[in-house]
Hints:
By secondary structure, the chain is of the alpha/beta class. The chain folds into 3 domains: about 20-80, PUA domain (Archaeosine Trna-guanine Transglycosylase, Chain: A, domain 4), CATH 2.30.130.10; about 90-175, 2-Layer Sandwich (Transcription Regulator spoIIAA), CATH 3.30.750; about 210-400, 3-Layer(aba) Sandwich (Rossmann fold), CATH 3.40.50. About 25% of the residues lie in helices and about 25% in strands. The protein has helices at about 90-105, 145, 150-160, 170-175, 215-220, 240-245, 260-275, 285-295, 315-330, 350-365; strands at about 20-25, 35, 40, 50-55, 60-65, 75-80, 115-120, 125-130, 135-140, 165-170, 190-195, 195-200, 230-235, 255-260, 280, 300-305, 335-345, 370-375, 395-400. The protein has a 7-stranded mixed sheet with strand order 15-14-13-16-17-19-18, sandwiched between helices. A hairpin with a 2-residue loop joins strand 11 (about 190-195) and strand 12 (about 195-200). Helix 8 packs parallel to helix 9 and helix 9 packs across helix 10. The longest helix is centred in the first third of the chain and has 17 residues, at about 90-105. The chain is globular and about 75 Å long.
Amino acid sequence: METRPERKPAGPPVNEAWPTPWVQLKYFSSQPTLYPAMIAGASPDAKAGDLVAVFDRDRRRFGTGLWNPKARVPLRMLHYGEDAPGEELFDTLLTRALDLRANQLVLDEDTDAYRVVHSDGDGCSGLVVDRFGDTLSVEVHSLGIFQRLGKILPQLHARLGTKRQVISVDDFVARVEGIRFARANDVRTVKIREHGVRYEVNFESGHKTGFFCDQRENRRRLADFVKNRRVLDCCCYTGGFAITAKVLGGAGDVTAVDLDEEAIAQAKRNANLNQARIEWVHCDAFSFTRQMQRNNTRWPVVVLDPPKFILSREEELEGRRKYEDLNGMGMNVLESGGLLVTCSCSGLIDMEGFEQLITRAAYRLGKRLQFLDRSGAGADHPVMANCPESRYLKVVWARVW
Length: 401
């Protein structure tokens, strides 16, 4: 009687000498963030925060990553290949990230505010670091990264010449990652420069790392379009587009609108730093543009830079509707042939999908739309080829009539 060969178990046999701690994948994935359904097993000694050897389903060495079995993302890949780096891997990743900013982009010539480490975009999943003057603003999304900040931060300070740091961990992230973190930052504000424009970054009231340096090159580019023209900046936050338009672009009257009262207060302080006269309006962008439409008030340049409207898949339809509605309202207060600069920072919508929403808003209003260009975050926010969805910021430049 013919017997079938015994099927090999999914995990490694007991006598196979794998370096510990190890994790084995159930399915192949090029993604840097691997979820529980993709994990076949882990060695008994693999602890939360460990740097682990990663093997694929065929028991070949796949790479090296950070392990946290109870986290929403239990495995974060940091290295791919058969070699077996140890803790020195973090030195390699940080050196590579710093080399890009200092030696290739040479950012210090134009600004002292830029992204130093861009999480998966720099192969350092779970770590975001922005430099603001002499201060590093650090966002942590991984227990393994949090445990190594004592080594990571001195290395960054030494290379960048910075002295202070502000560390933030989202409450939800801290809970699911098991990070015990007590906020004790003694840095409240810092002043920065960007293409000759000055800003004050407030770490207590600011969103994310305190200032959106991802829009740096888009702010600078806007200045080329606004000479002596009136500008409306909706969802202005702390005034980046509005102040750059006035100071660098020589814009005429600039009106900037935001619902966040603290952001408007900070924007006024930033305008004072640059002796820029801007009309600040504390109001919801939807309500403001509707009122301006009723008043028959129009601008030759309109900037729309709203907060993230799509936070999860469950909110996607509602978020898309908000983007379409806001762009429609923006077009309604734009002069015929005027420039629309519209942005989305929602990672769950790609550039093509965003353009489709803008197009639908234009056609719904019977307007013609001419795309001039599309852009995104600056090169200090790189995107790894195995994680294209991290290209979150989308900016569309268009004429409407």
